[in-house]
Design brief:
The structure holds two protein chains of two kinds.
Chain A lengths: L19 H15 L7 E5 L7 H4 L3 E4 L5 H11 L4 E7 H7 L1 H10 L3 E7 L2 E2 L5 E2 L23 H8 L3 E6 L3 H13 L4 E6 L11 H5 L2 E3 L11 H9 L5 E8 L6 H4 L20 H5 L1 H6 L3
Parallel strand pairs in A: 1-2, 1-3, 3-4, 4-8, 7-8, 9-10
Antiparallel strand pairs in A: 5-6, 7-10
Helix pairs in contact in A: 1-7, 4-5, 6-9
Chain B lengths: L1 E2 L2 E9 L3 H14 L3 E7 L6 E11 L10 E6 L2 H7 L3 E10 L15 E5 L1 H9 L5 H13 L3 H13 L3 H22 L5 E2 L11 E4 L1 H11 L4 E4 L6 H9 L1 H4 L2 E4 L3 H13 L4 E5 L1 H16 L4 E7 L16 H6 L8 E3 L4 H18 L2 E7 H5 L1 E5 L18 H5 L28 E3 L13 H21 L5 E4 L5 E5 L3 H14 L4 E5 L2 E3 L3 H10 L3 E5 L5 H10 L5 E4 L8 H11 L5
Classes of the chains: A alpha/beta, B alpha/beta.
Chain lengths: 295, 588
Amino acid sequence: MSNLDDFLSPESPTWCPGCGDYTILKCLKEALVTQGLAPHEVMVVSGIGCGSKVPYYLRSNGYDSLHGRALPVAQGIKLANHALKVIVVSGDGDSMGIGGNHFLHAMRRNPDITHIIENNQIYGLTKGQFSPTSPKGFVTSTSPDGSLEAALNPMVLGVAGGATFVSRTFSGDVRHMVETLVRAMKHRGYSVIDVLQPCVTFNKINSFKWYKERVYDVTKSADYRPQDRKWAFAKALEWGEKIPIGVIYEDTSTPTYEDQVQVLQEGPLAERDERERPIHWRVLAGEEKLKRAFC
Amino acid sequence: MITNDMTIKIGGEAGMGVESGGAGLTRALARGGLHVFGFSDFMSRIRGGHNFFQLRAGVSEVFTFAEEVHLLIAFTKDCIERHRHEVAAAGAILYDEALGVDPESMPGRGVLACPVPFSKIAVETGGDPIMANTCAIAAAAGITGYDFERIREVLEENFKKKSEKVAAGNIAVAQAGYRYAKEKYSAGFKYRLQAIGGRKTEDRMILNGNQALAMGAMAAGCKFIAAYPMTPATSIFEFITAHASEYGIVSKQTEDEIAALLFAIGAGHAGLRAMTCTSGGGFCLMVEALGLASMSETPVVVAEVQRVGPSTGFPTRTEQSDLEFAIHASHGESPRIVIAPATVEECFEAGWRAFNLAEKYQCPVIILSDLHLSSHLQSIDKNRLDFSKVKIDRGELLTRGDLEKLRDYKRHLVTDSGVSPRAIPGHPRSVYVTTSDEHNEYGYAVEDAETRNKMMEKRMRKLETAAREDMRPPLLYGDPDADYTFLCWGSVYGSVRESVDLLGKRGVKANVLRFADLWPFPIEKARPFLERARHLVVVENNYTGQLAHLISRCACVEMDTKILKYSGRPFSPEEVIANLREEARIHV
């Protein structure tokens, strides 16, 4: 069992007052405690950006990697030690701009990783440029006449790309976010959470109020069918006057990547072999056989 | 008669079995106790074009190829056109009778025209024209009087994997081709190959640098490889992957090279001995992650098998042009270790040693190989790859017992050596964060100047420690009291070494100083060798002389002569000597 204090870091967040990242940090801690996870059982991997500073402010194993590169680092860690609960925290630019290719391929593999996409539709840490999720026409310092590019929608990509768990939550609804995070982390497979959050400093359009007026909990709909990919796709495409939040897609039948790697079935590689035997004992035993193939 | 000292060249289009036939013949010769060196020259295409495989056989160890060909096996007319001038006096050209070659097109000098009905025998005896290459290599054994049994053995092993029928067909074709060439041409041909008695066939291995490197990595307990296929590094990835399940290794093909190194860094961070392999173009994409490994002090091994650049360059040809790139790759200044094996055996050693260095210094280690080294086949005695001599040094890795006693763990503790005790994540007492940002000893990002200076100095200090404790001096071959000292690194060594021997026979005293540990450059260990040399001649497969630059900047020693080649083709010993003659104006 763990409690919130276990996850208390000596570092203080540097985010702007009112930033949605505070809520994400708080909810993440609550979600971990809810599941009874201890800091040493968790590995939080992030990219670069405001939200990617989470590993500093959450006491757990952490790896703050490079911009856009959290997913491959996290997948390497998971393959080496699948006993760790691996969580990726990265922004919209991180996940869908510079790291877009990694996102596509992570979906195909279904690693047992939870991916929190902190989506504020803007590049905040570089002080306000349009991001891959900014709407067309979005005016920023690098798009003074309005962005000419259409926005990417993480939910649409998630359902289309084969992610086995696709969801959205909103930083203005703490209870909803904790519930969604817990459900995502309990999912065995790649779980994507699109977190809508205002950037209080640089995004004057998608404000707290803007979201509050639009979001609705899709899990409470009469026709809620998260196992139905077509339904999920239709919900993912909804964006405008009404924006669905909640789990829209959940596939529990696809095995995780780790489940399919034969050598991982005896347990996490990082914890095996080394304790009692030299790490190369298997190869030492196979020396003659390996060499014979070349004679 | 000249016995057991000859070069055979096999040429034809891609898809005709040039390389597989060549490799089969190489193996059959090694089985007979001969030493062999074989390399292929192939184009970046699947069918057509012109490829060749060249093998040299001798009684003692062969370190390189020779230009003079004694037996040319041609599958196409084009092959004869291209290579007939290379055939030695009284050599022979074996070709498919069906090519309709005009015997007048032979180069003279007593070179025998030896048509053999390769494809006719393949179809009539084996039932498949694809077996023409089998017929050809058996004919080569026939004309040289080599023991047919060795050919049969290799064919049986190679083809019974497909089916007994395929194996039997190939053996029948080989028998017919062997008999034809032996009866018709052997008496008139003065070059002979003969199995050496008294040796067990399994004493000798035939392998290339990539296979040796991969085996070395496995022998080091490498548990993780992530890569994106790229010539000429792919066979490292394939070899380890083929053995992954048996030896408890995770192999992951990733979406690109960016991800490949990052996967390996993740696995390395989580405690596995992890690696990736690529060529220069893929290494370009890994540069960002290389800096991350240095900054987060994550052990990881990158095998960079160089090919011709820049850009796509020549995908299937050799070059040594990434030395300075490997030393400096990544923005900022960061520690990494670069080692460059020069022989197949050294590839094996580099394969395991790299993991020790990576864990000891908690930084990336780059093994710089090159296409020629990665793909030429060489015979070595089996006991020379001795797994029991592989040492495992995991550096300052905290054991389970250490972890139980931990208090206030600082992952990036500042130490005299620059190396901090490393905990594998997952233990309650070693919960820590690490980062690509500048950070303090705990791993938290900071921005103050004092910490920056301390951490920068700590990381860079690892290079001083490594140069002192682990980087080896250059290796000298030849007379220490020589008039000419060649300097080289990587695969070029094989030919330069032989040049030294040839020069010695011609009365010129030369030696070769070979650099294997390139970064951090072992300045103090290299200096005595450099100061003693009279005339320094660098030989490199690149345009700018990158080893020469390195020696110049580190040891303030300038070359007297530079022999550089960037055509994508390896140096032959004769070529090194010809260049020396021209560049250094000496008469040899």
